[in-house]
Amino acid sequence: MIQVAHVSKQFKDKKQVIKAVDYVSLQIRKGHVTGLIGENGAGKTTLLRMLCTLIEPDEGTISIDGENIFHHKEKVRRRLGVLFGSETGLYNRLTAKENLEYFGNLYGMTQHDIKNRIETLAKRFGMRKYMDRKVEGFSKGMKQKVAIARTLIHDPDIILFDEPTTGLDITSSNIFREFIYQFKSAGKTIVFSTHIMDEIAHLCEDVIMMHKGQIVYEGGLEELYEAENSRDLNYLFTSKVVRGDLYV
Asked: Which of 216, 188, 195, 215 is nearest to 205 (CA)?
């Protein structure tokens, strides 16, 4: 289980102080698919960056299975697969295959495991034809597929995605969703942010709604539907924001 306790993070923008995450507490259940939704600037990406130890909170603690993640950064990072929006993390002068090999080596994988994992991912994402081409000539969608494969190369048990289907065509988006179902069956913990409510509705068991750095709902989707007597996520999110519901 991932536990976030009284976490805050602020940034300075010229003379202004922006509180990106404001005293947030929540739990992400192990083996569940959790959707993270909110407007641009709600604090979603900042929260995800703290979860993967890229930035530390100004206040509060984050733990995975009872261990403070900032006391065990390297151990935590080996358990995580992370993809942030348009930040593919790829090297343009390397081929798709070389990129995946490089990241597999970073995670200490054997050459045998790297080869097998690349073959599996290339086949699954329909990338076989361009695995030996340099990434710099790829379309946005092609780069995004390689970036997702890079995220999954070491078969992590906790996966964090920020807008994972950005730039993907319908077929590739559907393949990604199939991966989510597979991860769920394998008992992996997945958190992903998206503006596509249908993805939340079809893929997630739990949802976290953020507004201006705070939580307006955290919990199971079915519990939310039952409590609000509606299954319209757009309406439910807007309703929570308008009412000013806060989870502290």
From this structure: 188
